[in-house]
Amino acid sequence: MAESVIGLYKTECVRHEGQWRGVDDLELATMSWVWWYNEIRLDSEIGYPLEFEQDYYRQMNAQQQPLLGELSLH
Predict the structure, then answer these.
(1) Which residues lie below 8 Å from residue 5, measured CB to CB, with a gap of 6+?
(2) d(CA 29, CA 3)
(3) Over the Cα atoms of the chain, what is R_g?
(4) Residues 46/52, Cβ–Cβ less than 8 Å
């Protein structure tokens, strides 16, 4: 699995962008690519990763909220 992510990174970021002026430029491009990979790209399994995660936590919080007048452990 990690090999396919590294290959994707090399194809989409390192080789696609072309010649790098230095390590600093490559580091900035890498950070940008990782942000895109984790936050923006569409995932074929779940659709939109960020929205999926937000929906999950919204549902978890709704289930854990005590009813009005009910004692809470928090």
Answers:
(1) 37
(2) 19
(3) 20
(4) yes
Tell me how many helices (H) and strands (E) the chain has: 4, 0
> Cα–Cα distance between 47 and 58 in angstroms, integer?
17
pLDDT digits (tens, 9 = 90+) for 37-65: 887 776 656 556 667 777 777 877 766 65
- Say if CB 26 and CB 20 are below 8 A apart: yes
pLDDT tens profile 25-36: 989 999 998 888
How many beta carbons lie within 10 A of that of residue 62, not counting itself? Answer: 8
Structure tokens at 1: 């699995």
CA pseudo-torsion sign 20, 22, 28, 33: positive
